[in-house]
Design goal:
The structure holds two protein chains of two kinds.
Chain A: E1 16-21, E2 27-28, E3 43-47, H1 49-55, H2 58-62, E4 92-94, H3 99-102, E5 106-111, H4 121-135, E6 140-143, H5 147-159, E7 163-168, H6 173-181, E8 185-189, H7 193-207, E9 210-211, H8 217-220, H9 225-234, E10 242-246, H10 251-265, E11 275-281, H11 286-293, H12 319-329, E12 332-336, H13 338-352, H14 358-373, E13 381-386, H15 421-428
Parallel strand pairs in A: 5-13, 6-7, 6-9, 7-8, 10-11, 10-13, 11-12
Antiparallel strand pairs in A: 1-2, 1-3, 4-5
Helix pairs in contact in A: 4-5, 5-6, 9-10, 10-12, 11-12, 13-14
Chain B: E1 2-5, H1 8-11, E2 19-22, H2 27-37, H3 41-45, E3 56-60, E4 63-64, E5 80-85
Parallel strand pairs in B: 1-5
Antiparallel strand pairs in B: 1-2, 3-4, 3-5
The chains are: A alpha/beta, B alpha+beta.
Chain lengths: 433, 90
């Protein structure tokens, strides 16, 4: 594998110190590398927060255009890329109608259903893609549970790079079509996401392609921090009491926490405790299972069985860190049955006009579960991360619903009626059409 | 003999070899044999307890050994063991 490197830091970029192993703390130069050569641990980007904080002030941020690059000092790129999709600056919406049904007093929804490819993955991919261009890779690629497929394909289209998207062969058709529409080469693999991921680790090594969530992972993972930056900015530079987020690999969950930590570090927000609540699907809940058992040893799930495909990672690399985060902050990791998830999707769409994909249903149901458990308390200000759009998982909404036929006063799909006022009036009266 | 595929990160310890043949009747014996042949791999692969460290996932014929009998999984002649970094998220 060719290791590309960028020139040594200059005065304008030295807020980025380099890569550092999360486990043994060994330093490595910025490059297309993701594994510590000494101990095999994950590499992460290290910043000089004194330098970053000099120019990243509320006034400076307010004067910048919308999107994730307004926080560039805390992102692992030297400068905003010349070409990038308009990612981020999604709204934080007061969910006053939904909150009571979840048992919550104050609920905000971070609505990431409206990123360019309709999920939060655009945040991570934008940063990975920017670095991929610097490193001069021939193609962008990813191993995906679905949302990343669309995000990678869209970013590659905007940059004029070929995209190779590896997915489990039985993925939701809407997600496959989405990636195909952007011109990606979609490679279905017979197996689970974890099989796809294992294969892609080997493919990344052999091809040198820029796999956003493998050899570009140190940069990719940083994208999720922008969720924290935007939430804090939307709240007037402060943090909420509770963050609720979906957990698949655990990377986003833990990086949102780091985003808030960094804002404290450079003085943009005051340090206040934030409880972190994660949600998983019962049919693939290795992290929730470990949390409930009081251990951080993650037992992988071999055959996930859930409609929540976007969270169906049986072998979550950051699962241990997600358990630690929940424990250290007084949070929890909740496991949610698919029928509850589907009901949560229907509720938030019906009550707030926000239509999430399955992970969003898990997240909102996890908020309710954490409230019942007492992790979320009366009066708490809760922010739920709704990370993907319901149009990606169109079959999930109706899961567990026996009768979706509309009758007067009850939503659903009405039977076809003749185009006459009298036919409509008969239907409205509950009669035959 | 079984075949062990070596990822690029570890190839500095194997003199650049992409795969090596190792004797052993279990995954543990194969890993032990591998480290005996290339001692520099010990620091990269093994934890303080002498087992694979938690950042290493081992796959026997493309199946995660934690779904089999972990390090006690029997290895037959001609099997392929792949050692990869623990990394997932899509």
């Amino acid at each position: 594998m060719a290791i590309a490197t960028v020139p040594s830091p200059t005065s304008s970029t030295n807020r980025i110190v380099g890569l550092r192993c999360r486990s043994c703390r060994r330093a490595d130069p910025i490059g297309l590398s993701y594994v510590c050569p000494a101990c095999f641990g994950p590499l992460e980007v290290e910043y000089d927060y004194t330098i970053a904080g000099r120019t990243l002030t509320p006034a400076a941020i307010a004067a910048r255009p919308p999107g994730i690059w307004r926080y560039v000092e805390l992102l692992p790129v030297d400068a905003p890329p010349r070409r990038s999709l308009p990612v981020g600056s999604t709204p934080l919406l007061a969910a006053d109608r939904l909150a009571p049904s979840l048992g919550l007093d104050r609920l905000w929804i971070k609505d990431d259903t409206r990123n360019p490819s309709l999920s939060f993955k655009d945040r991570a991919v934008a940063i990975a893609a920017a670095r991929a261009v610097e490193f001069g890779v021939e193609a962008l690629a990813c191993a995906s549970t679905g949302n990343l497929a669309g995000a990678t394909a869209a970013a590659a289209a905007a940059l004029g790079l070929p995209a190779y998207v590896f997915i489990p062969a039985d993925l939701e058709p809407a997600k496959v079509d989405h990636a195909l529409a952007y011109g990606a080469t979609v490679v279905p693999i017979e197996g689970t996401y974890d099989d796809v991921n294992r294969l892609c680790l080997e493919v990344a090594d052999e091809t040198g392609w820029g796999f956003v969530n493998i050899n570009l992972r140190p940069f990719y993972a940083e994208g999720s921090k922008t969720l924290a930056f935007e939430i804090a900015e939307s709240l007037g530079w402060r943090s909420p009491d509770v963050i609720v987020a979906p957990v698949a690999s655990g990377a986003m969950f833990t990086r949102v926490a780091r985003g808030f930590e960094e804002l404290v570090e450079i003085g943009l927000i005051k340090r206040r405790p934030i409880r972190f609540v994660g949600g998983q699907a019962t049919g693939c809940a290795p992290v929730a299972t470990a949390w409930a058992a009081g251990t951080d040893e993650i037992v992988p799930v071999r055959e996930p069985d859930t409609i929540v495909r976007s969270l169906a990672i049986g072998n979550p690399a950051d699962g241990r860190y997600a358990v630690e985060l929940a424990n250290e902050t007084g949070g929890s990791i909740e496991a949610i049955d698919d029928a509850i998830t589907a009901a949560a999707i229907r509720d938030v769409a019906r009550l707030e006009g926000i239509y999430p994909e399955t992970a969003g249903g898990v997240t909102l149901a996890a908020a309710a579960a954490a409230r019942r458990r007492g992790v979320i308390r009366p009066g708490d200000e809760v922010v739920a991360l709704v990370t993907g759009n319901g149009l990606k998982t169109p079959d999930a909404r109706a899961f567990g619903v026996a009768d979706g036929v509309a009758r007067p006063g009850q939503p659903g799909l009405a039977p076809a009626i003749r185009p006459s006022l009298s036919a409509f009036e008969r239907w409205l009266d509950g009669g035959a059409t | 003999m079984s075949t062990v595929r070596i990822p690029p990160t570890l190839r500095t310890s194997t003199g650049g070899a992409k795969q090596v043949e190792v004797q052993g009747s279990t995954v543990r014996e194969v890993v032990t044999g591998l480290v005996a042949a290339y001692p520099a791999l010990g620091a990269q692969l093994l934890g303080e307890d002498g087992d694979l460290n938690r950042f290493v996932n081992a796959f026997l014929n493309d199946t995660d050994v934690r779904h089999l009998e972990a390090l006690d999984t029997p290895v037959a002649d001609g099997d392929t063991l792949v050692l990869l970094p623990a990394m997932a998220g899509g």
